[in-house]
Design brief:
mainly alpha, two-stranded antiparallel sheet, 5 helices, transmembrane helix, membrane, AIM11, Altered inheritance of mitochondria protein 11, transmembrane
Length: 174
């Protein structure tokens, strides 16, 4: 703290808090942080998949436990003739449903993790990255094709047609 000539105490330049950054701009070191808003938005898909996986695992465990308790005979009942109606179709449908839930939730979690790992947070970014790698920006623009490529292709086609016509003329009909 330094004293001003008027006698009041003013804070020293080192003690003042730094000026706040503009609201929309993120500092460079925060943009790569795991707690940045962009990273948290990307990780939300991963956490959604992890939550679905935990829920589907709990449902599967509950279904398996319920089936085991239903199949096990009571203490004083004979185990030679179970009283349960056995339906292979219903068991297969239940197993398919549980497996589908588990696989889809695991897939959502893996897709979310992959999107976070490659730093893609929206569908537009994913389309831009994919089209850039596949070369789609030059795919639908015929002006970018070199004219010599067209002429050489035309020459090859014309030569092949001449060869094919020459072979047909030299062959004798039987």
């Amino acid at each position: 703290m330094a004293r001003s000539p008027t006698g009041s105490v003013s804070p020293s330049p080192q003690a003042r808090p730094p000026a706040a950054a503009p609201r929309g701009a993120e500092p460079a070191d925060e943009s790569t942080s795991i707690t940045s808003p962009r990273s948290l938005r990307q990780l939300s898909i991963f956490f959604l998949g992890a939550t679905c996986l935990m829920a589907s695992t709990a449902i599967t465990r509950r279904a398996v436990r319920r089936r085991l308790l239903r199949v096990a005979p009571k203490y004083y009942e004979p185990n030679t003739n179970p009283h349960e109606h056995f339906s292979p179709a219903m068991d297969a449908i239940q197993a398919l449903n549980l497996a589908t839930m588990n696989v889809f939730s695991f897939g959502i979690m893996m897709v979310g993790g992959a999107l976070w790992a490659v730093d893609i947070s929206s569908l537009g970014e994913m389309q831009t990255a994919l089209r850039g790698r596949l070369g789609y920006e030059s795919f639908d623009k015929p002006d970018r094709v070199a004219p010599e490529a067209h002429s050489s292709l035309e020459e090859i086609i014309i030569d092949k047609r001449k060869e094919a016509a020459g072979k047909h003329d030299t062959e004798k009909p039987r």
